[in-house]
Design goal:
Layout lengths: L10 H9 L7 H11 L4 E4 L6 H15 L11 E4 L3 H14 L9 E4 L5 H10 L3 E4 L1 H9 L10 E4 L2 H6 L2 H11 L5 E6 L4 H10 L4 E3 L11 E7 L5 H11 L4 E5 L3 H13 L4 E4 L5 H12 L5 E4 L1 H4 L7 E6 L6 H8 L9 E7 L4 H10 L6 E2 L27 H10 L1
Parallel strand pairs: 1-6, 1-7, 2-4, 2-5, 3-4, 5-6, 8-13, 8-14, 9-11, 9-12, 10-11, 12-13
Helix pairs in contact: 2-3, 3-4, 6-8
The protein binds adenosine monophosphate.
């Protein structure tokens, strides 16, 4: 099964994988494609970077071409739901790229908020086979009765765990009632906690669970570093690193939209090709920022987590956690933007006395041990803050775990 031919894919699809320089199928593609070609429903555990988009797009395109040329009016046959607008555009693009050698490539539309709804309605009325949508705009179109899902034979829930984070649970009922019961369904999720498993049961009467032996992305060659630096010195250090270490395309994560705008403005003032990407921008601006970063006109993209989830930027060499991510899982998502598809990457986290404890939690949860580096001229000032001792436990109450820990530390 170590080739696309052995997976049973058609000649035009194999040609497309060659044009995209895919030498051989990834683990998730080997595990999922045969099930999907034989029409099974699947619940697959797969992270971004594992090649999961092609794992569902290839068999879906094969199915569409087997069903034969579609005569007008074209109905929506495939619905793919994704959590973010950027991912919707990216997945739609993957469908197009993989379908380009088909005799009749199926029309694909990304249905996302922030873009003109009238234009989406017009394109839908001209006939679209594959819709890649974010839930909000999809429900909007369903409520306006401009989107007919009665002919959908294939449903994909991509990044199901993220869909749930975005409040998809409530929207799922509306969606299910709009879809025909006879369809093939597939769900992809980076993790399979009980809440995702309960979605599987609501979406598919029966399904095969697909897990790969490795959860590693295609090529996971990410060098992870942590550099100690005071908060106020982070921007000068960032600029120093970009120059002295010749960082290529660099994605810098910050905590807020405001921080993204400020940092990107200051970098531009200092002569760096930089722009910001966050949820506060208009969709056109977001698309433009990502496009300029992808095509190399912008070298440093300053982004918040919300805007950067799932994005795939070829040649992205460095990810910098200017602000540490909130959760250990977000750390993995962030660094996974680099070291993708055969390229190596570097992930650098800035840490100071105040954030040291948080970085340790991230390391512990992800079973990582990052050394702490210092850069000459940017060393940390001061001492780690002593933790204030809390008040003594109130008499008559049992000591809490925290109280006991505090006592142990002060011994
Ligand atoms: P995904 O996990 O779908 O976001 O894919 C991550 C990256 O891997 C994308 O840039 C894909 O184009 C690329 N990719 C997908 N399948 C393969 C493959 N078999 N070989 C090499 N790269 C691939």
């Amino acid at each position: 099964m170590n080739s696309f031919e052995a997976l049973g894919l058609s000649a035009p699809l194999i040609k497309a994988t060659q044009a995209l320089d895919y030498e051989r199928p990834t683990h998730i593609q080997i595990a999922a494609i045969p099930h999907l070609i034989s029409g099974d429903n699947i619940a697959a555990e797969a992270k971004t970077g594992s090649g999961k988009t092609a794992a569902f797009a290839l068999p879906i395109l094969q199915k569409l071409s087997k069903l034969g040329p579609i005569s007008p009016p074209i109905h929506v046959q495939v619905l793919t739901l994704v959590p973010t607008r950027e991912l919707a555009l990216q997945v739609a693009e993957s469908f197009r790229a993989l379908a380009r050698f088909e005799a009749e490539p199926p029309p694909v539309l990304a249905v996302i908020g922030g873009a003109s709804i009238d234009e989406q309605c017009r394109t839908l009325s001209n006939g679209v086979s594959i819709v890649v949508a974010t839930p909000g705009r999809l429900i909007d179109l369903l409520e306006r009765q401009v989107l007919d899902l009665h002919h959908v034979h294939t449903l994909v829930l991509d990044e199901a765990d993220k869909l749930l984070d975005a409040g998809f649970n409530e929207e799922l009922n509306i969606l299910m009632s709009a879809l025909p019961p006879n369809r093939q369904s597939m769900l992809f999720s980076a993790t399979m906690p009980p809440r995702v498993i309960s979605i599987c049961a609501r979406v598919m009467p029966e399904y095969t669970v697909v897990r790969t032996h490795t959860s590693q992305p295609i090529v996971q060659e990410i060098k992870q570093r942590a550099i100690q630096v005071d908060k106020e010195q982070r921007r000068p250090l960032l600029q120093h690193l970009i120059k002295s270490e010749h960082l290529g395309k660099t994605l810098v994560f910050v905590a807020t939209q405001r921080a993204a705008e400020n940092l990107s403005r200051k970098l531009r003032k200092d002569g760096f090709y930089s722009t910001a990407l966050h949820g506060g921008l208009m969709q056109d601006e977001r698309n433009d920022a990502l496009k300029r970063f992808k095509n190399g006109r912008v070298k440093v993209l300053i982004a918040t987590d919300v805007a950067a989830r799932g994005i795939d930027v070829p040649g992205l060499s460095t990810v910098i956690n200017f602000d540490l991510p909130r959760s250990p899982q977000d750390y993995i998502h962030r660094i996974g933007r680099t070291g993708r598809a055969g390229e190596s990457g570097v992930a650098i986290s800035f840490v100071d006395h105040e954030t040291e404890a948080h970085l340790r939690v991230i390391e512990k949860k992800n079973q990582l041990h990052l050394g702490r580096e210092t850069k000459a001229g940017f060393e940390l000032c001061g001492e780690p803050a002593q933790k204030a001792k809390g008040p003594a436990p109130t008499k008559g109450y049992r000591k809490s775990k925290k109280d006991k820990l505090r006592e142990l530390k002060s011994d």
